[in-house]
């Protein structure tokens, strides 16, 4: 089967790779590019463990063909921060115990990142609704919601201090 040449920006770096026409973005990210943050969960778009930010939208990479990402700008959890300099969402998930096993966490953080870009001052109801497409089997969601609200408050405080 002929492979398609793909060029995209992933976590701020331009990358090129080959993919089969029916290959899913999650497999290209994990297997061809070595990006392990997005996880393969249900492979039916129900759980959200594979969530990435693509061209300004949260997408479940298990239901996106890699060819659809041609020219796209993609951010995974690795693109938000690193172990020595965590993104505020990563820090708040840690501080507020918004994770347990960690399997859903990368997708949760990426979805929360997009949610806060779209709504920088969400209510608890906004967060619960905005995160409804990402499932967690461990936490009961309360600490995830607290972490996202705390991150929003931190980000808003930083924005005000910069003005």
TrEMBL record:
Location of the 2Fe-2S ferredoxin-type domain: 4-80
Entry-linked InterPro entries: 2Fe-2S-bd, 2Fe-2S-bd_dom_sf, 2Fe-2S_ferredoxin-like_sf, 2Fe-2S_ferredoxin-type, Beta-grasp_dom_sf, Diverse_Oxidoreductases
Keywords per UniProt: 2Fe-2S, Iron, Iron-sulfur, Metal-binding, Oxidoreductase
Name of the protein: (2Fe-2S)-binding protein
Entry-linked Gene3D superfamilies: 3.10.20.30, [2Fe-2S]-binding domain
GO molecular function: 2 iron, 2 sulfur cluster binding; metal ion binding; oxidoreductase activity
Species name: Pelagibius litoralis
